[in-house]
Design goal:
CATH architecture of the largest domain in chain B: 2-Layer Sandwich
Helix content of chain A: 25-40%
Largest interface: A-B, 47 and 44 residues
Radius of gyration of chain B: 48 Å
Shape of chain A: globular
Mean pLDDT of chain A: 96
Low-confidence stretches of chain A: none
Oligomer: heterodimer
Number of helices of chain A: 13
Low-confidence stretches of chain B: 88-117, 165-180, 208-218
Structural class of chain B: alpha+beta
Order of helices and strands of chain A: EHEHEHEHHEHEHEHEEEHEEHEHEHH
Number of helices of chain B: 7
CATH class of the largest domain in chain A: Alpha Beta
Helix content of chain B: 10-25%
Distance between the termini of chain B: 111 Å
Order of helices and strands of chain B: EEEEEEEEHHHEHHEEEEEEHEEEEH
CATH class of the largest domain in chain B: Alpha Beta
CATH topology of the largest domain in chain B: Chloramphenicol Acetyltransferase
Strand order of the largest sheet of chain A: 3-2-4-5-7-6-12
CATH superfamily of the largest domain in chain B: Chloramphenicol acetyltransferase-like domain
């Protein structure tokens, strides 16, 4: 075991999968000799060469379109969209083609494609470099949506995503690329898709989070623990398919749920969790289900004070935890 | 207009009170602020006074009843006036638990304390209260505004069962419907929306596997790796499955193609005029169809319930592609003339090479022909296209010296000859069956007359 950053976990996963399977290749903007804007692919071009680490034109629909075609013909492409904000030109390829191919062809074709995509705000990126897009894509049947919250999971989940026979949107918390550090096991391991993880056991309230917000929730849970509030923290890890069993099991224990996400609140992923709890665990409910999320404004503002106003942070999570525990 | 007497809320966390003693009887005159009854809580006993004047017309509860705060307990009005119906909630009526409960105050004035009703329970508290038969009025709430939390009721049950010798507590198993009872559309998008990854994903190299050395190939200076296309994988899968499924045996026959060569030479130009390029293949298909009609067992499939004889004759023709092969099918080949077959072959082969075949055009074959002679091969041992029971290979037609009977004496002559190989499923056919079929095929080709 050694301590690594989240982006190092990503890079290791890519490196190991490229070495393991000759069908794996990477394409995206600036991912070649430049190593990607966040250096997630640093060193891979030198190691695997231009036939497997392929710089693409600045055209997301083409990056994904190429990936779909290659995937349908037996390759395992990993496409990088530089920022989640730029994924929208490829929406048609992802939703109409990649996600539906297996269903549409009656199982004759599958699209083993991974789309890596840094998401999230809090880095001074303003309108075009801060978006969270998970709710939009988690809505699409046939597309898996995965968001790691720590280096160990980032590596293990990405390896599983590459080996998966279905299109996987792999959203990486860009603010956490270097801010989140953690132990990464040596050697081969994977983390399964579709399985949430209870990262902290507690009795009073359940907090559901993923990605960067999970990182904040860990700190917030530490704070309120000193006040005697026992928080059970569930890292969702895969939003689609959702691990309903783990989500419900924790709620049945505490009866109180808080969902924390930085995407816009309205029709966000928290709404799906809340609906699931209402439908399948109503008789265990001991408090109104709470959401702490980004506000419903069109984008994360560039101004630092306004960005801080937008972003859920440790202090806000602490306050929400207290309020829910006191109910 | 009379004056209702309401059970007050005595303190923030107090949700109800017990009527200790009525200080007035029905019919008594009541003055403003005159005490009407005593209310007891576990903290305090106090008098409740009238907020209006008149005659006490009705008492809604008896002494000793516990009444929810905000409930109508008495009514002051003018003699002859009809007091309103009892519509309050008696949380804990010692005489008749449940009676007059479950209804909200209707015509009473607003409760002194606004906001959440005092006995509004969360779903989990309501459920536990029902399961353990708990009188929630006995529980001191610690939640927001004195709300009874799940923890409160569980602590109460815990303390009660310690006191209660009988300890008749029921299990707190969930009554939520099990997963199995849910309708399919209640499940998240799993199942066939996603292809299981274990199907084709390469194994994780946790231990040395045959695949592990491959991983180093791309960077090795002496080897190259050709990625497996989905067609390559499909062919590989089918070939392995076929040889594992059917015990293959192959019989080879030699055929004199003089007759069909002569016919072809004579009719080539006429066929060209009809837009068809006449090759030898249609002749072999016609002869195969004849032989299959004569020997229907060759046009069959092995199944556990028996040998399934196909009434239709659908001939698959293997077409090679740059990275593999595909087998388009001529459906109802027995209904087509030589010209029709020539046109069908040309059309299917063209579209196979340009990837424009429709799914039904590669399905439903009952017998397959592979024309390996086109590449110079003399004879081959083809692999059966499952679930058919035989495949015919056509070798190259070439001129060879052969011995013929020339009016009772042997003579050496030159004839266009070809070897035909039939690979067959030995579960279905024996060698004699296969050779009877081949004999018919040979006879038809060597005694060609335009059908």
């Amino acid at each position: 075991m050694s301590e690594k950053t989240l982006v190092e976990g990503i890079r290791e996963a890519l490196d190991e999968e490229l070495a393991r399977d000759p069908n794996v290749f990477i394409t995206g903007t600036d991912i070649g000799p430049r190593g990607g804007v966040f250096l997630a692919t640093q060193g891979l071009y030198a190691k695997y060469g231009p036939r497997r680490i392929i710089d693409s034109p600045l055209a997301e629909s083409s990056i994904i379109g190429v990936g779909i075609g290659a995937a349908m013909n037996g390759m395992r492409p990993v496409c990088e969209i530089q920022f989640a904000d730029f994924i929208h030109p490829a929406y048609n390829q992802i939703v109409n083609e990649a996600a539906r191919m297996f269903y549409r062809s009656g199982g004759q074709y599958c699209v083993p494609l991974v789309i890596r995509c840094p998401y999230g705000g809090g880095v001074g990126g303003g309108l075009y470099h801060s978006q969270s897009v998970e709710a939009t894509f988690a809505h699409v049947p046939g597309l898996k949506v995965v968001i790691p919250s720590n280096p160990r999971d980032a590596k293990g989940l990405l390896k599983s995503a590459i080996r998966d026979n279905n299109p996987v949107l792999f959203l990486e918390p860009k603010k956490g690329y270097r801010a989140i550090k953690g132990e990464v096991p040596e050697g081969e391991y994977t983390e399964p898709l579709g399985v949430a993880k209870v990262t902290r056991a507690g009795d009073d309230i359940t907090v559901y989070a993923y990605g960067m917000m999970h990182f904040y929730c860990v700190q917030a849970a530490d704070q309120v623990a000193e006040e005697g509030i026992s928080v059970e923290l569930v890292d969702l890890r895969t939003l689609n398919p959702l691990d309903k069993a783990t989500v419900l099991q924790s709620f049945k224990k505490t009866g109180k749920a808080l969902i924390v996400y930085e995407d816009n609140r309205f029709v966000g992923f928290g709404a799906e969790i809340a609906a699931l709890l209402c439908e399948e665990a109503f008789e265990h409910m001991d408090a109104p289900i709470m959401r702490l999320a980004g506000p419903d404004v069109p984008a994360v503002p560039y101004s630092r004070p306004l960005q801080d106003w937008f972003m859920p942070d440790v202090q806000r999570i602490v306050e929400a935890m207290r309020k829910l525990a006191a109910y | 207009m009379g004056t209702p007497v309401i059970m007050p809320q005595l303190g923030e966390s107090v949700v109800e009170g017990k009527i200790g003693k009525w200080l007035k009887k029905v019919g008594d005159e009541v003055k403003l602020y005159e005490p009407i009854f005593e209310v007891e809580t576990d903290k305090v006993t106090t008098e409740v006074t009238a907020s209006g004047e008149g005659t006490l017309l009705k008492l809604y509860f008896d002494e000793g009843d516990t009444v929810q705060a905000g409930a109508l307990v008495a009514y002051i009005g003018q003699p002859g006036e009809t007091p309103p119906e009892a519509s309050s909630i008696s949380v804990h009526d010692a005489h008749s638990a449940g009676e007059a409960s479950k209804t909200q105050p209707a015509e009473v004035q607003p409760a002194p304390q606004r906001g959440r009703g005092p006995t509004r329970l969360s779903p989990v508290v309501a459920r536990i209260a029902a399961e353990y038969n708990v009188d929630v009025s006995q529980i001191q709430g610690t939640g927001e505004g004195g709300r009874i939390t799940k923890r409160d009721i569980l602590a109460y049950i815990e303390s009660r069962s310690q006191v209660d010798e009988r300890g008749e507590t029921r299990g707190a198993e969930s009554r939520v419907g099990s997963e199995a009872e849910l309708a399919p559309w209640e499940y998240p998008s799993t199942g066939e929306l996603f292809k299981p990854s274990e199907e084709t994903a390469p194994p994780a190299p946790t231990q040395p596997t045959p695949r592990a050395p491959d991983a180093s190939r791309p960077t090795s200076p002496t080897t190259d790796v050709v990625p497996l296309s989905s067609m390559r994988r499909a062919i590989a899968e089918h070939m392995v499955r076929s040889v594992q499924t059917s015990p293959h045996a192959t019989t080879v026959w030699e055929v004199d193609c003089s007759q069909i060569s002569a016919h072809r030479e004579a009719n080539k130009a006429a066929f060209e005029r009809d837009g068809a390029h006449l090759t030898f293949l249609p002749y072999f298909i016609v002869a195969t169809v004849q032989a299959l009609k004569r020997h229907p067992r060759v046009n069959s499939s092995w199944e556990e319930r028996g040998i399934v004889l196909h009434r239709t004759i659908n001939i698959g023709v293997a077409v090679s592609l740059p990275d593999g092969l595909i087998v388009p099918v001529i459906h109802n080949a027995d209904a087509l003339s030589l010209l029709g077959l020539a046109q069908a072959i040309h059309d299917l082969a063209e579209r196979a090479r340009s990837g424009r075949l429709r799914p039904n055009e590669v399905q439903g074959g009952t017998f397959t022909i592979t024309n390996h002679g086109g590449f110079g091969s003399l004879f081959a041992t083809p692999i059966i296209h499952q679930p058919q029971c035989a495949i015919l290979g056509i070798g190259k037609i070439e001129k060879r010296p052969v011995v013929v009977d020339a009016g009772g004496t042997d003579a050496l002559t030159i004839r266009p000859m070809a070897y035909l190989s039939l690979s067959f499923d030995h579960r279905v056919l024996d060698g004699a069956d296969a050779d009877h079929f081949m004999a018919t095929l040979k006879w038809t080709l060597e005694n060609w007359h335009a059908p």
